[in-house]
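Inverse folding, one chain.
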């Protein structure tokens, strides 16, 4: 899901600017200047004018401080410094973790089908004859679609002999595997949180950066500045996100102000062990299959959409949760911060008592920039608690979970037949229900919401091909 584009660069820049101001104790005094400093008077505007661009920067900054953007009137009548003051007093993050920038959202088409100038106004007019809503007429010698009545059935595109009708996707809707994003009659997109699985695909898909995850950096920095005992629980995919080795990353994180750094691969080792035992028990009593449990977007999808598959999901907790439990035992009064590639982890963290905050690699990288920390210049520092095995460290890549379970099942009198769902799509959501009805070609279903696994999550900073090789090299060396 890695995608280099200007919207991601802008977001990271704002994160770094806000973090730098907070670390320098000038957040309240200087934050209102961020839009003006980022969009200068002589800049060419992306929208109608530089003032609109500055307004969108303000909205992004508000989301980065952890607020929803749905109340436009309130936003327009408050300063960034007003939000900063509230953020500094906030005790914990709030639901939902995603929010829309309304003014940035209204640029997509309302209908998905568009008739190009390849239209010859032919006598046959199959587009008009076959349109179920009579939404097509001829104007100026060319067919036109009435957006008000079009239902996006696509019949016109199928029947046009000149291929004059093209499909124009709405990127966020297209990327959502569960149909949780719908455009209203005013052209504004809304997220139906009763359907949303918080996978973050829409965040990366929107070319206008109109969908934001609410950041928790203010909350984390506040604890750093207060001198709290803070534990960074780093996802195993972190080794694939920076150009330096794991131990230099550990030192860089501690330079930010974290007290301890623990790898979530420890929790992944526990997850694999429990899933292996549970798999043996299920198969032993006659069950046909079991699903993995580590991807929170997938398990959320099962709860809301693939409900027939609920009985087959492993009862094992996620690696993040097991790691948080270990940290709570070792450092009982600590603040626990998960750092990984996943937006869904932010949602998961809201509901799990032993997790305080969650950051993405994008946010971690921005924090390094804000503090002037270059991981390449850091020394090699050891991990706290202990090091994980390659079973847990292999979880971030598609197939890694089933491979880990398979290693633990060696010598057992059961044949493991893994079925891999590499990337959650609308088809795969339905496929899980098919598997639940006894039509599964294997007996262990591993599901990764992101194609390629966690190393391709919505919060990564490294291209998938590079990340995959870095992870493989790391595991070979350990």
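Residues assigned per position:
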């Amino acid at each position: 899901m890695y995608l280099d584009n200007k919207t991601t660069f802008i977001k990271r820049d704002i994160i770094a600017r806000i973090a730098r101001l907070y670390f320098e104790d000038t957040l309240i005094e200087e934050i209102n200047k961020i839009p003006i400093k980022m969009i200068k008077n002589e800049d060419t505007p992306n929208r109608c004018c530089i003032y609109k661009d500055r307004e969108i920067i303000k909205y992004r900054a508000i989301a980065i401080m952890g607020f929803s953007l749905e109340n436009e009137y309130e936003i327009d009548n408050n300063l960034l410094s007003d939000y900063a003051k509230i953020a500094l007093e906030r005790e914990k993050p709030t639901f939902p973790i995603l929010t829309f920038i309304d003014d940035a959202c209204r640029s997509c088409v309302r209908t998905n089908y568009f008739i190009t100038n390849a239209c010859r106004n032919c006598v046959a007019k199959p587009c008009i004859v076959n349109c179920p809503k009579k939404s097509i007429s001829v104007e100026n010698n060319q067919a036109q679609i009435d957006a008000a009545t079009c239902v996006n059935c696509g019949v016109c595109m199928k029947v046009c002999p000149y291929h004059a009708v093209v499909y124009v996707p709405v990127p966020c809707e297209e990327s959502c595997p569960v149909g949780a994003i719908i455009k209203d009659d005013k052209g504004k997109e809304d997220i139906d949180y009763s359907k949303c699985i918080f996978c973050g695909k829409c965040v990366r898909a929107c070319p206008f950066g109109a969908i934001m995850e609410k950041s928790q950096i203010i909350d984390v920095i506040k604890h750093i500045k207060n001198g709290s005992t803070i534990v960074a629980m780093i996802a195993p995919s972190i080794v694939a996100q920076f150009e330096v080795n794991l131990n230099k990353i550990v030192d860089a994180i501690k330079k930010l102000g974290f007290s301890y750094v623990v790898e979530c691969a420890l929790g992944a080792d526990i997850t694999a062990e429990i899933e292996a035992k549970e798999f043996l028990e299920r198969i032993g009593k006659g069950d046909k299959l079991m699903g993995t449990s580590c991807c929170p977007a997938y398990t959320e999808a099962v709860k809301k959409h693939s409900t027939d598959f609920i009985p087959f999901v492993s009862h094992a907790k996620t690696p993040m949760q097991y790691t948080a439990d270990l940290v709570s035992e070792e450092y009982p009064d600590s603040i626990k911060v998960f750092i990984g590639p996943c937006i869904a982890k932010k949602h998961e963290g809201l509901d799990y008592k032993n997790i305080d905050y969650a950051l993405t690699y994008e946010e971690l990288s921005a924090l390094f920039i804000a503090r002037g920390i270059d991981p390449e210049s850091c020394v090699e520092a050891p991990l706290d608690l202990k090091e994980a095995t390659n079973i847990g460290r292999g979880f971030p890549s598609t197939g890694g979970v089933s491979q880990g379970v398979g290693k633990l099942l060696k010598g057992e009198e059961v044949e493991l037949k893994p079925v891999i769902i590499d990337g959650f799509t609308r088809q795969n959501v339905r496929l899980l229900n098919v598997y639940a009805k006894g039509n599964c070609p294997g007996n262990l279903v591993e599901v990764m919401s992101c194609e390629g696994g966690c190393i391709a999550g919505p919060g990564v900073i490294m291209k998938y091909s590079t990340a995959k090789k870095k992870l493989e090299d790391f595991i070979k060396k350990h």
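The chain has 22 helices and 15 strands. The first strand starts at residue 98 and ends at 100.
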